[in-house]
Amino acid sequence: MTRAPRLILTAATLTAVALTAVGCGTTTVESPSGAAPAATSQACVDDTTATSTDPVTITDGVGRTVELDRPAERVAVLEWQQIEDALTLCVAPVAVSDVAGYETYVQAEPLPEGVVDVGTRGEPDLDALYAAEPDLIIVEAFSADDELIAQLERRDVPVLATVGADGADPIGNMKHVFSTIAEATGRTERADVVLDEFDEHLAAAQQEVAAVDLPTRDFLFFDGWIEGGNVVIRPYGQGALFTALGEELGLTSAWTDEINDAYGDGGVDPAYGLAQTDIEGLTAVGEANLFYSNDDTPDSYVTELEKSPIWTALPAVADGRAQPFPAGVWGAGGPLSNQQAIDAYVDILTAK
């Protein structure tokens, strides 16, 4: 869940670019010779929802018009939330970015065999990407001027850009990205089922948490990493997806830094709702309940965090109210990752 460098780059750099609307024409894609991998989750094995075959016209997340003669079947996906989304829609990508990272940090939807790894998310191997013969490439961007979009548009394969985060409505944006990918792949009927299940899951969780007598409903979720031998803490503030989930469950965010475009300089970035501090900075939340990521990797920041006397002296730690989420609950994921996060909150808050 930490993956600090990628999130910092996305939030601090891309959100500073103004949105510009551009258009792209209809693209006819010839049928490729090889079959796409099959989605293998039990939900997809049992799925009976219909797949549309109608032409598609979409205004994507950065205002571009994307037109397809038919819904995409062979998608290449260059960001983890969107990889998860495609799999939840029972559309197995033919190519994705950073397989090893995805399999470490995202447990909601396992990748099937046969998916091509095209390298890093920001700088994919274009030869490997196009050799997989996608009929749609799904990327994450905050502007139509994104360099990756411009690079990909030089080839005759449509590019669909989705906005990975929106601090004004993080849950709504998560749903919108999912629905956009569903529209592009003809899987809107499946998307409606999944989103209805998400809403029902959240509603049931709200009732469970409301019934619990907590010493405080203030909370903070955070993750972190090691930098220069020191623990860096990344609090999730206003606008963060996991903060919004906690608030939906009746909790109150204890991180009070205001939105500041200069991420890491005392504020909360406007897209992802993330801040940056050190272990001592956690004292600012007082008695709040603490939730944090621990992906159980060899370089996990948690090993050093737990050695700190500042950490062990925090009220939530001393009272047993500082608990990790299970490994692999991705903090910028789709509906299923968010259901995992909801379950983690509920399991911790209702534990006897």
UniProtKB/TrEMBL annotation:
GO CC list: outer membrane-bounded periplasmic space
Keyword Membrane: no
Single GO BP term: iron coordination entity transport
Keyword vocabulary terms for this entry: Signal, Transport
PROSITE patterns: FE_B12_PBP (PS50983), PROKAR_LIPOPROTEIN (PS51257)
Residue ranges annotated for the Fe/B12 periplasmic-binding domain, each copy included: 74-352
Subcellular localization(s) per the UniProt record: Cell envelope
Chief place of localization: other
Pfam families associated with the record: Peripla_BP_2
Signal peptide annotation: 1-20
Protein family (similarity comment): Belongs to the bacterial solute-binding protein 8 family.
PANTHER family on file: IRON III DICITRATE-BINDING PERIPLASMIC PROTEIN, IRON(3+)-HYDROXAMATE-BINDING PROTEIN FHUD
Name the UniProt record assigns to this protein: Iron complex transport system substrate-binding protein
UniProt source species: Leucobacter luti
